[in-house]
Amino acid sequence: VHPSVKEALVEGRPVVALESTIITHGMACPLNLSMAREVEEIVRTNGAVPATLGVLRGQIHVGLSDEELEFLASSKNAVKVSRRDFPFVLSQGLSGGTTVSGTMIAAHKAGIPVFVTGGIGGVHRDGENTLDVSADLTELGRTPVAVVSARAKSILDIGRTLEYLETPGVCVAAFGESREFPAFFSRQSGFQAPYHVRDEEEAAKLIDGALGLGLSSGVLIAVLCPQERAAEGQAIEEAIQQALSQARSKGITGKEVTPFMLQKLTELTDGKSLDSNLALIQNNARVGSCIAVALSKLQKARRKGNLDLTPPQPVVIGGINVDFIAKEQNPDILGGGQTNAGSVRQTFGGVGRNLADCLSRLGQAPLLLSAVGKDEHLESVLHYCHHMDMSAILQLEGRSTATYCAVITSAGELSVGLGYMDIHQQITEQYV
């Protein structure tokens, strides 16, 4: 998790998740990079923290640095990462852009409730025969994240997509003054959303209601395309039909359809579809950021109102150590550089960690404030302490996790102790 995103989540500030497939597969470089930077800046301007998600060398990243954005934007071998792709991509150390489905999974695990995208996948045209249905729809039915989108992508069957979303109980609402479900490049599709929300406050209340019930399904907020772009919708729709025909004749199916269609639409419309696509993505980022800010305010107000009713979370501030215990087998320890028979075992300690461990096992769920290095011990520490709230732990590059080695006699008496615990100095007042 990027430090700016982690800090915002810890402080309860609004965070907006952003997908990266549009960077790796939706636009050519360097347009994709400039688009990603612009969208992140729109999110910041509207009071939220952007968290572009992606997979880099087999690791899921929640929030990307500018260098990491450049890496994904220029990568020639990036893959599209949906739910089904995570096991292979992570195990093989590959890099790629997360789809709507993949981004929802990572955003939910990171604790980000609002996700902005250009458009979701859906039921493809002729899907009743091909059974080509995007994993985005099934993800919306089982992952509690609010997706702010300009509806289903323009190459899809809107009616069947809405019908499909009804079955797993996905709450779909149009954003605006009517229930008109927007088309990707048009403000009208001929279909009605079940509900509509007039502004970001109403959208935030809807999302908060879904989260408060603990529903396992997501929410889809469908945003109208900007008015100034709506006039181009008919010409683009005609180009869509032509591009779809070419895709069928070339036998292009599955996840290859969207990149092909986007490229072909850009050619057939002399770039107008690309301009419209950029405009609606930017508009979605603005709307989604405002919704995230409104949701954050709503949740903070409720937490403040419930302050006297909610037991406070204990906070433990202290060290985490990796302990090595060397026990002599014989009563006498041989000196002079000789090897003594004995046993060595590894465990985990530190007074702060021990207290947090005890409280966690008693059901008190404390927050541990400590520091570890990004070294060979990090993974084992996190695994051993998986039952504890380690979300605020500092993980520092170029630092070593604290270690302590105790040499004890066969009777269990401490003979000598060695410790390297300089990292504890990083637990400062500013960090706390």
Explain how this protein is built.
InterPro entries: Indigdn_synthA-like, PfkB_dom, PsuG, Ribokinase-like. The protein has helices at 3-11, 21-26, 31-45, 66-74, 86-91, 100-110, 127-130, 135-140, 158-166, 200-213, 227-230, 233-249, 257-268, 272-305, 351-361, 378-384, and strands at residues 15-18, 49-56, 59-62, 79-81, 96-98, 114-116, 146-149, 171-175, 180-183, 186-192, 195-197, 219-223, 315-317, 321-328, 342-349, 367-369, 371-373, 394-396, 403-408, 414-420. The chain is of the alpha/beta class and 432 residues long. Helix 3 packs antiparallel against helix 4 and helix 10 (200-213) packs across helix 14 (272-305). The protein contains 16 helices and 20 strands. Strands 1, 2, 3, 4, 5, 6, 7, 8, 11 and 12 form a ten-stranded mixed β-sheet that branches. The protein has a four-stranded mixed β-sheet with strand order 15-14-19-20.
